[in-house]
Amino acid sequence: MASKTDRVKSLRAVRQLRRVRTFYAGGVLLWAVLTAWTAWQSPGSRQMWVSALLLAVFSGLLLAASLWLQRLQATSERRPAHHAAPRKATATRHAHA
Length: 97
Hints:
2 helices; mainly alpha
């Protein structure tokens, strides 16, 4: 059984990975535009290859963050959201004289 702190850490990790994934998606978009622009202006130049390398790096980071997020969401769905109260009636307690 997972503790409550594990659940909170999992929720924090999911939230943080969503933010990071958004940042990496922005990086991929930026470097894709810059790579296309540089390839148009000076194909085969050093700047184009550096831009393509950074595009590949951000794409890899985006892929890794997406996979981790998917894995975390899949494991959190398997856990029960809450535990129901036991059905067994509790015994009444009597004070001894």
